[in-house]
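Thread: Newbie trying to understand structure tokens

Hi all, I'm a second-year student working on a class project, and my supervisor (Dr. K.) asked me to get a predicted structure for one chain before our next meeting. I've only ever worked with sequences, so writing a 3D structure as a token string is new to me. If someone could post the tokens and maybe explain what I'm looking at, I'd be very grateful. Here's the chain:
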Amino acid sequence: MIATRTTSPDQTRERILGAAREVIARKGKRGATTREIADVAGVNEATLFRHFGSKAALVLAVAQRFCGVGELRGVVAQLRGPVEADLLAVARVMLEKMESQKDIIRWSLVDAEYDRDLFSSTAWRPQLALHDVVVEVMQRYVASGTLRGDARRLGVLFMGIVFMHVMAREKFPDSDLHIDPELALRFYVDVFLNGVRNNKE
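---
Reply by user tm_fold:
Sure, no problem. This is what the structure looks like when written as tokens:
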């Protein structure tokens, strides 16, 4: 008798999410079909819909699963200062996640022009979840008097610096900032702090 491989519902769900991430990275949200995602996952479309209900729900689940908010929360929970070290730790996680998702980020920027309803929802914009975590860090330092300014704006600025680095790599390939990511992150943290550190310290 031939043994058949059995998988749990959680394993099947993870396979579908991984396949969706792969197909969306290649074809974008609009170009990815549930049939191709199911084929890549090794399941039929009925199984895909049983787990996620619709293509839109699957796309949202992919964004939430791979955005890295869990990893970022884990790092933030262990921050103990000083501010330079904390922001460098946060920047490292964001850089790693943005680098690993650069293909999806590019497609999301293109697809956003075509599907404003879905992209206007908070659920599809995992950067908002990441931003909330970064804001928690900024709030700590604003409350302690280390940084000045609005924590939400500081969060957007800080995330934007890392985003710029990731998306500009091909445009400035010879820059030492793109040759040595650690050098780049230290430079960005230094520039950021020079602009928002409370001078009364």
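A couple of things are worth pointing out once you decode it. The chain has two domains: 9-64, 67-196. The mean pLDDT is 84. Feel free to ask follow-ups in this thread.
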